[in-house]
Amino acid sequence: MFELGQVRKVFSDGSVAVDEITLTVGPGEQVAFIGPSGAGKTTLFRLLNLTLRPTSGLLRLGGVEVSILSDFELRQARRRIGTIYQQHNLVGRLRVVHNVLAGNLGRWSTLKAFASLVRPQEIAMARQALGQVGIPEKLSARTDELSGGQQQRVAIARVLVQDPDVILADEPVSSVDPSLALSIVTLLRDLSRESGKTLLMNLHSVALALAHFPRIIGIRDGRVLFDLAPDKISDELLGALYAGHAEEEIQAERFNELLADSGVCRPLPK
Amino acid sequence: MNSSPTAGSAGRFQSKSAFPYLLVFFFLLSLVLSIRVAQVDPRLLFEPAALANLGRFIRGMFPPELSRSFLSVLGPALVETIQISVIGTLLACLLAIPLGLLATSSLTWSGILHERREAKRRWLLGFFPYAVARGLLSIFRSIPEFVWAFMFVRAVGLGPFPGVLAIGVAYGGMLGKVYSEILEGVDPRPLEALRASGATTLGIVMYGLLPQALPNVISYTLYRWECAIRASAILGFVGAGGLGQQVELSMRMFQFNEVITILAVLFVVVASVDLLSGKIRARVVR
Q1: Cβ of B207 under 8 Å from any chain A Cβ?
Q2: Mean per-residue pLDDT of chain B
Q3: pTM for the whole structure
Q4: What is the mean pLDDT of residues A226-245?
Q5: Percentage of residues in chain A with pLDDT exceeding 90?
Q6: A232 to chain B, minimum CA–CA distance in Å?
Q7: DSSP letters of chain A?
Q8: Residue of A7, A47, A51 to mutate, interface with B, max B Cβ within 10 Å
């Protein structure tokens, strides 16, 4: 699905966010990215979802080099990639139904998009997506009246409506409580399994990553430190990944304790 | 007692730079020079001739002219003033919406939405229209509506239409500039998300930009409408219809009792528009 060859991203202030990353992700794969904050994981995801342009290196999506795409082809390519952000990136003043149906904007004509703001089009689609994430009753609520966890589920419903080939989730659970975090991660993973969508997720919680993903990539200082199956990852490797980020290590541990305390995953209401 | 932290924190506020003093000095200097250049002389106001004129002017205002024949002339002029302001503001919006969108840098050429575009396309399809729109808006608003009205009276003749055009163009320039500033100030993260899902620029405008900006856009447009009523009352002075034309006529005829009636009517209209638009704003901005 994705092929990266020595991809570098240097920002205009000279800071190197991604430093020669080379990796391949096949279609239908589920990969978790872990690493200290500031390691370049979010920048990597913004390169992968075609928001940022690499400073140098190769980036292929489905075998096609993206740097040669025209504006129109770029839009077509972006339609195939759904992104879930840490901060939801929803419009709070819009009703939930519009934020969810915004997943259609890559397909809809301008006229249809406008008509939908007046009278929501393909409302059944929005209703089904919200049902899948467990908040069907919020269809016509104003988005900023929802809790953080509910807003994140609206963002997931938007991606469900978009129906992409790849789902990129950038720290999707860092603003929700541990048991809900677990249910969101499993929801996305099961979705990817059932529909064959590729799933890439940045995770703050090492425990969640190791427990639910068959492939773990550790990123540090903009480079790939390791790319292994979870059972091959030792404490020494994790220590090296987070070395010098003591606070995060402690936080990660606390999070894991919380997770252990809260016991099992709270199921999303069907 | 350890006094060093106190000394340290006090030191932070003691600027060694002479810059603030220089700034104050130049400010005072420019103030003094301005008073001289503007020929400010309060004594002129209290000279016997001036006081006598002022007295005649004020005495002439009473009793206000309330005869039926005058009021029946005033009614249509008042309606005309309100209509000029409404249609003028509408025209201003029609100019300001497309130009304001083009003049929004975050939409046309700079920032996260354009990171992937080729530099050449970004320049040609983004920055160029942006600069043209900015330039037009700045020409529109830097020429006062009074001057626009003067020119349009020459172009299309006397009457309310040149007033509409003058308000439309001058206020279009102001509204467009402010629209673009409001649009540039919205949270860019939802826009980035829409762009990343393959939305077109118009899709981003409809689902990300406008919903965030709408309360401020409506609020500022209403405020401009209030200003347009005042302006349309003045535009009559150059022959662009409405109440202003009546004020100018009465002034020229030294009928100050008519002037006071018109001013009172204008006051009531402006105050009620203030009230109305305040009500609408309170409903919209939530």
Answers
A1: yes
A2: 87
A3: 0.83
A4: 86
A5: 62
A6: 34
A7: -EEEEEEEEE-TTS-EEEEEEEEEE-TT-EEEEE--TTSSHHHHHHHHTTSS--SEEEEEETTEEGGG--HHHHHHHHHTEEEE-TT----TTSBHHHHHHGGGTTTS-HHHHHHHHHS-SSHHHHHHHHHHTT-GGGTTSBGGGS-HHHHHHHHHHHHHHH--SEEEEESTTTTS-HHHHHHHHHHHHHHHHHH--EEEEE-S-HHHHHHH-SEEEEEETTEEEEEE-GGG--HHHHHHHHTT-HHHHHHHHHHHHHHHHH-SPPPPP-
A8: A51
Instruction: State the architecture of B68-284 in CATH terms.
Output: Orthogonal Bundle (1.10)
Compute the nearest-CA separation of B95 from chain A (Å). Answer: 21
Chain A residues at the B interface, defined by Cβ less than 8 Å, are 49-53, 71, 74-83, 85, 87, 89-91, 93-94, 98, 102-103, 105-106, 108, 110, 113-114, 117, 155, 158-159, 162, 164
User: Is residue A31 pLDDT above 90, yes or no?
Assistant: yes
Q: What is the pLDDT of residues A123-170, one digit of tens each?
A: 999 999 999 998 999 999 999 999 888 999 999 999 999 999 999 999
ipTM, interface predicted TM-score of the complex: 0.89
Q: Are the Cβ atoms of B207 and A102 closer than 8 angstroms?
A: yes
